[in-house]
Design goal:
With 391 residues, the protein is an alpha+beta fold. Helix content is 29%, strand content 23%. It has two domains: 2-179, Uridine Diphospho-n-acetylenolpyruvylglucosamine Reductase, domain 3 (2-Layer Sandwich), CATH 3.30.465; 184-349, Alpha-Beta Plaits, CATH 3.30.70.2190. It has 13 helices and 18 strands.
């Protein structure tokens, strides 16, 4: 059975009734990320798409409050009118999961911590969530955080719910900090660079005053997935820089002094290539399992070499590697060996039931995870098993 509350009071009543009967829920917005995480085995479906709409938008304060079921596209359209944006650039993984483009809700994006390429400049989704309202496992609504960037009211619960995949309960309302939208953008490519050299350039640019909003590496094997790149030789390091026209030209000039005499070709327009990289679009047609491996950028080239994937590329200056194929145990081990972790982004249901989709937890961390779950959802009502078996 599917429950579709239209406001927080209705949702509260539904959860309270379920708590008394110990009925479990799969929480969905528009269902665009059902392929992420372990398969949920629940009694009912809780559809939050009815909890939609912008509650309050304060452009002068760079703050917006919206209900969790609000489509990201609706929020972005409102912000564009005031030349503002969500800094972490929400990633749209619809191509990867075969769902309608632009259908993601803000609650789903935050629950998955779905951060795009601009994360390296502005921070992850969890860094932009100032506060929220939610329902706990007893059916009680509560507030966390606030409407200011710095909050000292207690535990930083906004960071806790981002990436929790709905396992701590349904969000009903979220407040985000915003950033100004640049008037212009330039995307450049340093072509014919091997991974070690390409990643070294990206790290150098990242540590410069250029404040890039996108740094990616596309190896030769992945070039065909991006029309407009042309012949990239051994690979291409991609750079996106934002700014007004005059300062942007100065930034491009400074960029060229950092490249040891290499050329940086300006791609036509904004090219949209960074949105396509963050979306996993290049992996949509592949039949193998798709992973993201998160490592320190300095380890990216060595990690990619050890994984030896048949198809891969990198975002966040090498901090996020998209990988096709491979065995779960090996990928987790390699990622941990380089000081990082891995997450299975897409695989068959049977695979997701039997492998570690998220990084395996050490006993102490697993015990902490259980205590957090007990505090928010002691009866295990919400998205049971989505992240870890029995959770």
């Amino acid at each position: 059975m599917t429950f579709s509350p239209q406001n927080e009071n209705e949702l509260t009543d539904i959860v309270r009734a379920a708590a008394s009967d110990r009925r479990t829920f799969e929480i969905v917005g528009h269902g665009t990320k059902r392929g992420l995480g372990r398969p949920v085995e629940a009694d009912e479906t809780l559809d939050l798409s009815g909890l939609a709409g912008i509650v309050r938008y304060e452009p002068d304060e760079l703050i917006i409050t919206a209900r969790a079921g609000t489509p990201v596209t609706e929020i972005e359209a409102a912000l564009a009118e005031k030349k503002q944006r969500v800094g972490f650039e929400p990633a749209d993984w619809s191509a990867l999961y075969g769902t309608p483009a632009g259908a993601s809700t803000i609650g789903g994006v935050l629950s998955a911590n779905a951060s795009g390429s601009a994360r390296l400049r502005y921070g992850a989704a969890r860094d932009h969530l100032l506060g929220f309202r939610a329902i706990n496992g007893q059916g009680a609504p509560y507030n966390a955080g606030g409407r200011v960037v710095k909050n000292v009211t207690g535990f930083d619960l906004p960071k806790l719910v981002c990436g929790a995949m709905g396992t701590l309960g349904p969000l009903t309302e979220v407040t985000l900090r915003l950033v100004p939208r640049a008037s212009d953008t330039a995307t450049l490519a340093i072509k014919d660079v091997e991974p070690e050299t390409g990643f070294a350039f990206l790290r150098r640019i990242w540590s410069s005053p250029l404040e890039p909003t996108g740094l990616a590496y596309v190896p030769k094997i992945a070039a065909g997935a991006f029309a407009g790149l042309g012949d990239i030789g051994e690979g291409a390091a991609l750079i996106r820089i934002d700014g007004a026209a005059g300062p942007l030209a100065d930034k491009i000039g400074l960029l060229k002094t950092l490249l040891d005499g290499r050329e940086a070709a300006l791609l036509p327009g904004t090219n949209g290539i960074f949105a396509r990289i963050a979306s996993g679009e290049a992996f949509a047609v592949r039949t193998d399992d798709i992973w993201r491996v998160f490592v320190p950028p300095a380890a990216a080239a060595a990690c990619a070499r050890e994984l030896a994937a048949p198809f891969w590329l990198a975002d966040w200056a090498g901090g996020a590697l998209w990988i096709a194929g491979g065995q779960a145990d090996e990928i987790h081990t390699v990622a941990q060996g380089f000081g990082g972790h891995a997450m299975l982004m897409r695989a068959a249901v049977e695979t997701r039931m039997h492998v570690s989709v998220f990084p395996p937890e050490e006993p102490a961390r697993a015990a902490l995870t259980h205590r957090v779950k007990d505090a928010f959802d002691p009866q295990r009502l919400f998205n049971p098993g989505r992240m870890f078996e029995g959770m």
